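Can anyone check this?
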Amino acid sequence: MALSSPSRTDVNRTAILAHLGAHGPASRADLARRLSVSPALITQLARDLLADGLIEELDHASSGGGRPARMLGLVSRTASSIGVKVAPDHIAFVEVGIDGSVLRSATEAFDAVSPLAISGLVERVGAFIASGDDSRVLGVGVGLPGTVLEQGVGVVDSTQLRWNQVPLGATLRRALELPVVVENNVNALSVAEKLFGQGRDSEDFLVVTIGNGVGAGVVAGGSILRGTAGGAGDIGHVPVVEDGPLCQCGNHGCLEAVVGQGALVASGRAAGILDAADGIDRLRAAADTGDERAQRIYADAGRILGRALAGVVNVLDPELVVLLGEGVEAWTHWAGTFEPALRASLVPGKRGVAVVVESWQDDRWAQGAAALVLATPFDSDGVAGEQGRLVRERLVSTAGAR
């Protein structure tokens, strides 16, 4: 499908959809104020979007004594994005509506080190898209553990996946003929939190994940802080124990090598709690049933994580920390030592920082990847490059194609 270049009006239309997707229903007056356009233009654009079926009229809202304002909201299934989470042993897929709701999902086994890994990934993504309504898909977002220099280019380096300079973005774009953006998985989660989650009302916050690894997404001034090569927030490789366990990065004593799932399992085996075939689920079950040795392993990890995270908070000064990931399923065993260690290690002015622990489902990684696509209307810094422009064009064109 040929797409024309977006006009200024198209940009404003997209901005309205993006704002409603990120912040929920709003009145025309609110939109005019937040988007810095005239009330008359908002009225005109809202009329067009209503006619296109992209937004809908909702209930009236109180206006402080004046005439109630009519609220506008998204028609959530009009457009969607595909999110793909790539892990060493599986792939998770979701299709997400523009309001952040998960429309469908799937998970498949995957071997990242196989010589056929990339071709297999391309085939599976294509099959997932084809199994739904591909006419409404704006693009594909991919989140994975690793470093991605530019979202819109998508060349990947990942020690977990054992990928070196893999041109994943270009490969997927050629095969799918859709816009594709690729990002570190924790950064992708941070985008989802900014658009739809705990960070919707915060300009400066951290998203910290614990699981196979430990990572952080840094949101500063409402934007994801990526660093020189896209690796900002890699707190899993902060050194915490001198001459400690070997980390997958090649260094010793990294936070990830001490409190990541592999480290916890190794401690469980050394303590005689786990057999060679047992994993993290067995360790958590032992702690749940009162095994003091297992509980001590989690308690030690919580203390170390709390102190390390305090250092990050002291440096970055966020107003909110969101904790999530596979590891939070055992959070009751981390929390007792994490909170005291965190608060005691913060400087006095930061000891009141809010910490929110979210429940976890594996498809949240993929939902975060889908949010990369849905976030492109906010991409004032051009992080998504040409792919962001193509997504914006598709967003505006979906109504005309229906």
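Reply from J.R.: I decoded it. Residues 292-316 form the longest helix (25 residues).
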